[in-house]
Every structure is written in C-alpha cells, then in structure tokens.
Amino acid sequence: MEGHFDELFKESHIFANREVLSPHYIPQRLLFRDKQISEIEKALTPSLRGERGRNVFVYGKTGTGKTSCVRWVIERVKELPIIKARISYVNCRIYNSRYRVLNKIASDHMPIYAKRGYGVIDIYEKMVSWIEEDGKILIVVLDEVDIVRDLDDLIYTLTRANSDIKSGGITIIGVSNKVNFKEILDPRSLSTLYENELVFPPYNSPELASILKERIGEGFKKGVIDDAAANLAAAIAAKESGDARLALKIISKAGEIVEEGNRNHVSINDVEEAAKYAEEEVAYELINTLPENQKLVVYALAIMSLQGSKYKRLDEGSDSYMLSGEIYNRYCSVAESLHREVKSSRLYRKFISDLEMQGIVTSYESGKGIRGHTKLIKLIYRPDKVKDIIEKGLAKESEAETT
After folding, report:
1. pLDDT digits (tens, 9 = 90+) for 384-394
2. What is the pTM of this model?
3. Architecture category of domain 34-200 in CATH
4. Distance set, CA 39 to CA 156, 200, 393 (Å)
C-alpha cells in the first residue's frame, strides 16, 4: 500500500510553493495598488482613532485585487499596538443574510451570544451594548456584499445603529463586483449611507506579467517558467478581463501539465493549453453553483446567443444582446422539455437581476429602434462554453436520476 502513496508525497520538481499561486494568497507586497491601499487606509484612519469614520465601498471586476487590498490593510491594522477599533471580516457568500452577518459579528467578539436561539433584535442589542461599554469602533468588512439576500435590512440595521450608539460606532467596508449594486437598495437604506467609493480598474497585460513573475519566483522551481510563458499567460488574462486570478490559474495549470508529462520546462504551448482549462474552470465554478432555474435561464440565453435573435439592434446592427421577452419564452420551452416547473415572468425578472449581480449577464433598457420598451440582455461568458458546461451538468443529473 505504501508504494501507491510514494508518488503522491514525493517532492515536486516543478512547484516550490503552491500556496503562493493561489488566488487567496495575500503577498507582502501588492503591486500596482498603492493608490487604492492608501485610499482605504485614509478612510479607516478616523475609526482607528476611535472616531466614527466614513463607510467605504470598494468596486471592481473579479480578480482586480479588491479583497486582497482590503484584507492586506486589515491585517496591518491588527498589528497596530493600541487602537479602539475591532474588526469583523464577513464573507457574504457564506453569511448571506442580515441574521447570519450579525451572528458572525457576535461570534467574532461576543461568542456567548452567537449560539442558536438569539434573534436579530437580541444580537443587535448586545452588539450595541458591547460597542458602548468602552466607546469602541466596529469595522465590518462585507466581502461580496451584493450577495446578501436582505441587503436593505442589513445596511439599514448597521448604519442606523450609529444613531442608537451613544459612544463608539460602526464603520462598513463593502466589497462588490458590481459598481451599480447600490441601485437595488431602498431609498431609506441609501439615505443612511455616508461613504467613500473606490473603483479598482482591471489589470493590463504588463501589470499582470509583473504580478505573475513575482509569484512565479516564489511558487515555481528556478528555470521552470521563462518570461515568454509568463507574458503570454498575462496577455491572455488581460484580453479576457484583466483578471489576476485567471492569470494565476493559467500559469498554475501550465505547471501541472508539465509535471504530469514529467517534463521540466513550461512552453508557450503549455500556456495555451492551460488557458483553455482555466477559462472553462472559472465559468464552470460560477455557473454550476447557480440555482436550477437561473441555470436554465442562462442555458436559454446561451442557445439564443449562438442562434441569434429575431430582432436586430437598429442602432448597432448587432444581435449580441437578446430581448428579455424572447429569453423568457425560450426558458419556458427549455424548462418544459426537461419536465421542470416553469417560473413566472416576475420571478424570471428577479433571476435576471441576480445573474447580473453575479456578473454572468449584463443588461440595459432599450430606447427607440426596438419594438416597444424592453430590456436587452447579453451573456458575458462565451455562449458555446456556457452551453457545454450546463449540458454536461444536466447529463450528470439525468444519470443520477436513473440510477
């Protein structure tokens, strides 16, 4: 039996430190983000002095360094000797409701109150009392804040708390992939926000190349990857979206291909092959976590994007955007063919809104030139890949149902 595991545990001749190549790794130095880091630090300075600071909302596409910069600053804040601030970092993909967020805060700082049985009001009152006892400032970092189901209630609760707190306060750092996420907030929630906004631009090819080369120096054995391979991986990622995570996925996958082939050097061909896997993996991870009906809406949109719309844009002559009504009709047909319950047009509109929040589709309201007034919707990922990914998932579900 031992012989079977020898291969698994032997030292890699390609990788020196795989952790450095992870998108979740926070390096000591964050390249090309000095300005953004400085802005975050500046916004938090009042809170560190024990004063009520301004809320900060950080926007940018996936892989632009938003979370890394915020976490980098937070880690430096924790190293400060004496501050009145306390920090809760909340991953809203996990803690995706007001109750779960408040419970996470309680778990971080008042674990006795985080147990089951306490409701929102109870936790809220305990949190306010805990802040007031020595006038501390609670900094709540809400990563992927737009995922929270009852976002209005959460924002309203956290911001209005400052009216109830006699000494101390709460500062919010919101991180989102959607620059326009505040549009979904109720006016009462918006009226309580007093915030700085910080937008992270996508990385360009030279920037991604520099980031990759720094990680490669730590993550790979010497001589495995040359500048040409790193530059190509950066160029591919820059062309797709300026996503540093995609660039890291490509170069890491290229290393795996070389290691599996028992070779010692990553070639241009290895990077090109790795890019195909990496792009599919990014789309696969995102789309396969969707609820069933949202997945069927995306599937309908992918099919239509490949076939083309019956109605072309009069101002652009392009059918890359699909009419919302057409997509709904195709979704109904797809759901019926798979013997799934067809959801109402009202729920369908919510699905589209959710998909847009997750960065899978983009949309805008039509103007003149199209029959009536409607919403035009476009799939962000390549429709052929999306179609294949969903069909593979449907096939697996079908197999599971018959076994």
Report:
1. 989 998 998 88
2. 0.77
3. 3-Layer(aba) Sandwich (3.40)
4. 25, 11, 43
